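Summary: Need help interpreting a holo structure output

Steps to reproduce:
1. Submit the protein chain below together with the SMILES for NAI.
2. Request a joint structure prediction with the ligand placed.
3. Inspect the structure token block that comes back.

Expected: a single structure record containing both the chain and the bound molecule.
Actual: see attached output.

Input attached:
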Amino acid sequence: MAKISVMGTGSWGTALAILLYNNGHQVMLWSAHPEKAVSLNETREDSGKLPGVKIPEGIVITSDDKAALTDVDVTVFASPSAYIRKVSRRLAPYVRQRQIIVNVAKGVEENTLMPVCDIIKEEIPQADVCVLSGPSHAEEVSRGLPTTCVVSARRKETAEYLQGLFMSPVFRVYTTPDMLGVELGGALKNVIALAAGTADGLGYGDNTKAALITRGIAEMTRLGVKMGAKLETFAGLSGIGDLIVTCASVHSRNRRAGYLMGKGYTMEQAMKEVQMVVEGVYSAKAAKALAEKYDVEMPIVMEVNKLLFENKPASEAVKDLMQREKQGEISWE
Ligand SMILES: NC(=O)C1=CN([C@@H]2O[C@H](COP(=O)(O)OP(=O)(O)OC[C@H]3O[C@@H](n4cnc5c(N)ncnc54)[C@H](O)[C@@H]3O)[C@@H](O)[C@H]2O)C=CC1
Ligand SMILES: O=C(CO)COP(=O)(O)O
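--- attached output ---
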């Protein structure tokens, strides 16, 4: 049994706290907001985000920074990527040397182009920062539906230790040394899922969805490999796996936001309607900037940026993607 704190009471933090508790660990769930910790303690359910999912009484819910980080074996950082830097800075004084921190957020910071693990490392240099990612909607994990993920760490032993903590009969975890690839897959798939949702909103079919997923993973892989990630990672759970689920699932916030934009909502209206974090909107500019920095062609990412930030009509974006200059699927050289 390990002592684990989960930092963040969004749907993913809550689902992972329940998973880890059911695996027999001692679990604390921390909220950045005292009032949220108080209300969750009373209701033992987040009826807005995970209706019908009970948070076991054995999980201690707190907003006390020090208590949540004292004598823990592992801490899981589950805040949305936009808050990770602020949360890391706030918690850094309570983090011991070589503390294992598992990042589960998916994003790239807009102004620094850093994936989430790098942000945590910068703010908490004494920590051993790892990542868990994959096709894993909280709504399904919290109900014990079979799910697979991948965990990556600097050292193989740490990755295997974490694999053991998270694994359960309904939650299968693989290990990988490719932290960068895992992180990029998780962040970039959200941008492509906005496009897939938009296509749904426009009333397009399964052919269109398959095209966006396939050409989307091609873009993600091109960028990732140029940045130093491994090609195989993009064919794995944190790459194509997560891209498929996010483009197709009824639970996906990114797909839903895209769907609403396909129906004519502005980005702001869509985000308001979805009510939970839509990471693709925050990562889209960073993905575009990375494509430019590494000189990689990412036409879907470019069109999503126009849709989000230049009010380009969705149907125009699709037309422009379809009528791009002719291409080979693989090189003739
Ligand atoms: N929900 C899911 O199924 C999955 C989510 N993720 C990732 O996990 C991360 C968290 O997502 P969710 O739990 O879904 O978020 P959510 O939309 O359910 O909840 C938002 C979270 O933001 C927190 N928050 C709001 N204002 C804050 C502030 N000023 N400072 C710090 N925290 C603040 C809230 O307390 C809450 O924990 C995201 O990066 C997401 O991509 C990854 C896998 C699955
Ligand atoms: O990352 C996720 C599933 O693996 C969650 O995706 P959404 O944020 O689109 O719901």
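--- end attachment ---

Reviewer comment: Residues 3-177 form a domain with the Rossmann fold fold (CATH 3.40.50.720). The pocket of NAI (ligand 1) is lined by residues 8-13, 31-33, 36, 49, 78-81, 83, 86-87, 104-107, 136-138, 276-277, 279 (CB under 6 Å).
Status: needs-info
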